[in-house]
Amino acid sequence: MHEQFPTDEPAVVTCGLPYANGDLHVGHLRTYVGGDALSRALERVGQDVAFVCGSDMHGTPIAVNAAEAGVDPEPYALEYHEQYRETFPKFNVEFDSYGHTHDETNTELTREFVRSWIDGDHVVEKEIEVAWDAAADQPLPDRFVEGTCPYCGEAARGDECDEGCQRHLEPGEIEEPVSTITGNPAEYRTRPHKFLRLSDFQEYLAGFIDRLEGTANAKNQPREWIEGDLQDLCITRDMDWGIDYPGDAADDADGTGEDLVLYVWVDAPVEYVAATKQYSERVGADAYDWEAVWKDRGTGEQSDGGSASGASRTSSGADTGPDGDSASGAGRASSGADAGSEGGEILHVIGHDIIQHHTVFWPSMLRAAGYNEPRAV
Question: I need a surface site. Which of 60, 66, 286, 363 has the fewest CB within 10 A?
Fold first, then answer.
């Protein structure tokens, strides 16, 4: 059981990252105004809190639209990122730190997360069927392929049935695949990919959902997946745009690492940690200690910089914060239900379409890296 707010520990409020692939619209404000109001309310009752977010810069939709626009993905996404940074303050949505997933801090933290999973034996390679465009002679990850959802029969994209049951789809699951590049029917070919073994965390997740605070929907919807046959998560993709899969340190050093990038839903939630770290570096650990939020209780370690109350919002606008050095590797926590069950004061404000990502994938990713679990979704 968590203490009631205010607590002696610093808290962080996050919002689902806006995808840097188009203009913001009124619908976005439902999440960001709510997150801003929550962080202000916590601050008003005396809670030490940071409100953080960032732009989601990777994934196939950006790669597809950038190619259609005749530009590289990075400048394409950065243009929307800057638009978002300028727009949020106009609606009094005031983030303490607003970064993006392609910056140095998030890149290094993401690679450290994945290396810790590898070291903890939570990553396995599998041969899987991936959609392939024979005419273009290239693989078709995620939004490069469309077809039919195998679960509800509705039209779906490669990694999500966003028109029907909204279920996450693994590579190779979509039926009647069609390439969005050429419009031709796609074929399936066997390729090696990396998976995070969610099955290692099934017992832990059952306990996590019981502890989780937040909406009834966020607590109840994931039970179907957690209590059923929990499928491992494919964490790599065959494409150029994204964060390279790190492999081991020796491969990285000599340039022989594998030609894969990480799935966008690996590096996107790590931006919550990266943005918090950037805020802490900007105001100083004595004012706000990011490790006290994300790492201390999950690893049983105490950081040198204590958490001082009163690290209030210092800017009326979004602040990207400096790119900092990567965090030191967190010790691997047990995947069992009883180990390190007390989480940090981490509160995620999200839309209903990404509940599975925040209550199944993300807690497993945090646990595998030795980080604290969310308090509320």
Answer: 286
- Can you read off the two tokens belonging to residue 187? 């074929």
Q: What is the pLDDT of residues 124-178, one digit of tens each?
A: 999 988 888 888 887 887 778 899 999 999 998 878 888 888 787 888 788 998 9
Q: Hey, what are 40's tokens?
A: 């202000």
pLDDT by residue (tens digit) across 106-116?
999 999 999 99
Q: Which residues contact 280 (CB under 8 A, 6 or more apart)?
A: 50, 288, 289, 290, 291
C-alpha 340/C-alpha 39 separation (Å) is 26
Q: Please tell me the chain's helix, strand, coil percentages from 3-state DSSP, rounded to the nearest 5.
A: 40, 20, 45
CA distance 369 to 6: 27
Residues 39/45/48/54 CA torsion (nearest 10 deg): 0
- Say if residues 152 and 165 touch (Cβ distance below 8 Å): yes
Q: How many CB atoms lie within 10 A of CB 57?
A: 30
Q: How distant, in Å, are the alpha carbons of 80, 165, 319 from that of 154?
A: 31, 8, 41
Question: What token pair was written down for 182?
Answer: 């050429």
Q: Band the pLDDT of 335: cuts 50, 70, 90.
A: low
Which residue's structure tokens are 């690996």? 266
Domain residue limits, the chain: 11-122+200-369, 124-196
Q: What would the two tokens of residue 209 be? A: 């959902």
At residue 250 the predicted structure's pLDDT band, cuts being 50, 70 and 90, is very low
Looking at domain 11-122+200-369, which CATH architecture does it have? 3-Layer(aba) Sandwich (3.40)
Contact between 294 and 333 (Cβ < 8 Å)? no
3-class DSSP assignment, residue 183:
coil
Q: Which CATH class is domain 124-196?
A: mainly beta
For 275-297, give the DSSP string: HHHHHHHHH-TTT--HHHHHTHH
